[in-house]
From TrEMBL:
InterPro entries (UniProt xref): CheY-like_superfamily, HATPase_C_sf, HATPase_dom, His_kinase_dom, HisK_dim/P_dom, HisK_dim/P_sf, Sig_transdc_His_kin-like_C, Sig_transdc_resp-reg_receiver
Transmembrane stretches, start-end: none
CDD domains: HisKA, REC_2_DhkD-like
Residues covered by the Response regulatory domain: 40-157, 427-542
Catalyzed reactions: ATP + protein L-histidine = ADP + protein N-phospho-L-histidine
Pfam families, per the entry: HATPase_c, HisKA, Response_reg
Listed name of the protein: histidine kinase
Originating species: Corallococcus caeni
């Protein structure tokens, strides 16, 4: 009996083999692709006839073929000249093909190589499973037709190519996403700087004697103030949706009365609704609704819902905001309008990113199509849910936000916060490279009675900030040359606890806040910030000549 018969080798009929192409005439309908080009196959088999027949077929198909008759030789060849595919017999004289496969897959230099197991004897399903679990891509049982071998090699090469392209595309997309986020952060900073200057100027007009402005000028000032606020919200939403979809934001949660949050949102929405001729009604809970939440983010939720209601309601429409405590220890807040309503299919996708009811209508009414996406994500991060209902087009819409209430034990005792304004007390150094924003804020601080010096960049600030000279240093981060983080670190080394450091910047991502704290800032405010907030912060400051305490300020 021949050696081939002892090994169970059954002669196969040789055919003229050629490179297998996938052309337009194939069932897959793909463009022609020659998958054998420059491909190397390592053929491992200790039976001479099988080795010869397989190698001959592969070379006829256009592959470069390496040969090995033992597992050790195969491993060495794979390291010396990594192949694209290994056609590996499971029965070898020195070790099993399963062990060879496992060792190839464990080595980072060869783990991406495709492996085809072959066997000239009957192999049970259990053995095939063992081979596949060891890392093999496919299993062929001899006798097989040479064209079957070529087609199988071609198939695994094609899959490997697709995998490599997918990984390369994923890497490119990840890099593009990183660059996009860097661009958005820079864009926000560049947008917030001019917005800050305009906002300060408008707020100063509002704080001066109103009798000095004609009725028309006062109305124009109010228009500018509302539109600056709208632009600020658009910038915040654009950045927030990027952070939320990447999970790059963190909630600053604490006990708060949801009624207070709703009152702030209603106060912000009321002027816009009045301008659009809408009627705003409220029916809030008579008792406190204590939740564990981020005040700024929850205000963002209800501000977006109110803005959505006003945007899609006709002049003279009614917007009603209600809140009540349910029996399931949850609070439900509803925002109902008499606007254009929603079709059933729109209700199912309204919270999707960039979803618009109608392209032309959405563009005419403004917005980025991301506000409701932010609402859903922020509510869910608070352990709640948001729902929408409409009886159809022209029937208005009802949005309901449900949030869990704090237990009685977790609710804080009622306290009244009193902040006495301090005037004429602080020596302030204001550092900002935007001259309009710098001069506007300087004028406002001086109106409050503070002594203010200004610097337009880091080196000038460091030259001016000698120990004991200033009580408060308000410092922009996006400075030319020496950035605000570096300036803060240098100042902390010089003035130690002599001054409070406040970051006033267009950079507002969580990682920016973390960096500012590490650099030595006591507080991080994001432009454009309300002047009343700056006044509240200054009123909170403790005496100098001691380590500044970390202040809790509303996130802008």
């Amino acid at each position: 009996m021949s050696d081939g018969a002892e090994r169970g080798l059954i002669p196969v009929r040789l055919r003229s083999c050629r490179a297998v192409e996938i052309g337009s005439g194939s069932s897959l309908g793909m463009s022609p692709v020659l998958v054998t080009a420059n491909a190397t196959v390592l053929h491992v088999n200790d039976t001479p006839a099988s080795l010869y027949l397989g190698t001959f077929s592969l070379r006829q198909a256009g592959y470069r073929v390496l040969e090995a008759v033992t597992g050790g030789e195969a491993l060495q060849l794979a390291l010396d000249s990594p192949p694209d595919v290994v056609v590996l017999d499971v029965k070898l004289p020195d070790m099993s093909g399963y062990d060879v496969c496992r060792l190839l897959k464990e080595d980072p230099r060869t783990r991406e190589v495709a492996i085809i197991h072959t066997s000239a004897t009957f192999i049970t399903a259990e053995k095939k499973v063992a081979g596949l679990r060891a890392g093999a891509d496919v299993y062929l049982t001899q006798p097989f037709d040479p064209e079957e071998l070529i087609a199988t090699v071609n198939s695994v090469l094609r899959l490997r190519r697709v995998e490599r392209e997918a990984l390369a595309n994923a890497a490119r997309l990840e890099e593009a996403d990183r660059k996009k986020n860097e661009f958005l952060a820079m864009l926000a900073h560049e947008l917030r700087n001019p917005l800050a200057a305009i906002s300060v100027a408008v707020q100063m007009l509002g704080q001066k004697d109103s009798n000095g402005l004609s009725e028309a000028d006062a109305r124009r000032r109010d228009v500018i103030e509302r539109q600056v606020s709208h632009l600020r919200h658009l910038v915040d939403d654009l950045l927030d949706v990027s952070r939320i979809t990447r999970g790059k934001y963190a909630l600053r949660r604490g006990p708060l009365d949801l009624n207070t949050v709703l009152q702030h949102s209603l106060a912000a929405a009321r002027p816009v609704m009045e301008e659009r001729g809408l009627v705003l009604r409220e029916a809030l809970s008579a008792e406190p609704c204590w939740v564990d939440g981020d005040r700024t983010r929850l205000e963002q939720v209800f501000t977006n819902l109110l803005d959505n209601a006003s945007k899609y309601s006709p002049q003279g429409g009614l917007v009603t905001v209600g809140a009540h405590v349910a029996e399931d220890s949850r609070v439900r807040v509803s925002v109902q309008d008499t606007g254009i309503g929603l079709r059933r299919e729109d209700q199912e996708r309204i919270f999707e990113l960039f979803a618009q009811l109608d392209a032309g209508l959405a563009r005419s009414r403004g917005g980025l199509g991301i506000g409701l996406t932010l609402v859903r994500n922020l509510v869910e991060e608070h352990g709640g849910q948001v729902d929408v209902f409409s009886e159809g087009p022209g029937q208005g819409s009802l949005f309901t936000v449900t949030l869990p209430l704090l237990t009685d034990a977790a609710r804080p005792e009622a306290t009244v916060e009193r902040i006495e304004s301090r005037r004429g007390e602080w020596r302030i150094l204001l550092v900002d490279d935007n001259p309009d924003a710098r001069e506007g804020l300087r004028e406002m601080l001086q109106m409050w009675g503070h002594t203010v010096a200004v610097a337009e960049d880091g080196p000038e600030a460091l030259a001016m900030a000698t120990p004991g000279t200033y009580d408060v240093i308000i410092l922009d981060i996006g400075l030319p040359g020496l950035d605000g983080y570096q300036v803060a670190q240098e100042l902390r080394g010089r003035v130690a606890s002599d001054a409070h450091l406040i970051a006033l910047t267009g950079y507002g991502a969580p990682e920016d806040r973390s960096r500012s704290e590490k650099a030595g800032f006591d507080l991080h405010l994001v432009k454009p910030v309300e002047l009343v907030e700056i006044g509240r912060v200054l009123a909170q400051l403790g005496p100098v000549k001691r380590a500044p305490r970390r202040l809790q300020a509303k996130s802008a």
